[in-house]
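Hello Y.,

Per our agreement to keep a running log of every chain we model this quarter, I'm adding this entry. I've kept the format consistent with earlier entries: sequence first, then predicted structure.
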Amino acid sequence: MTDKQFAKDVAKELDRRQRRRKVLVFGGGIAAIVAALLYLRCGGGWGLGGEGAGSGSGPGSGSGSAIAAKRCEVRVAKGGITVENQPAKVDGVVTACKKVGAADVVVTGDAREGDWEDLRKALEAAKIDISLRRPR
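Predicted structure for the entry above:
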């Protein structure tokens, strides 16, 4: 190996080191910015558990358990419409779902499209919240 070749190899290695150092510094800076943004946006903790600062005794009353709102279970299939597993007509579905104000509707692939359209229009006219699901 000549002195000229040796000098080129050393220069290349120094360039590689400098490039690596720049990437690490730049990456570290980006990571620090992201960590700061997460800290500021997500609050004072990292979600690792531990006791909170409060005493837990407030003016509220109740058991503290949350119960999901009840929704009418409606299924539109080839055989017709069912509400809570009971056969029903469109009027019956609207009457049953009007009490709770919301309906989970499952429209199967073999259902008659006209049945679903009639039901949808009646539920919307009665201002009942519809959550639609079409299984595959």
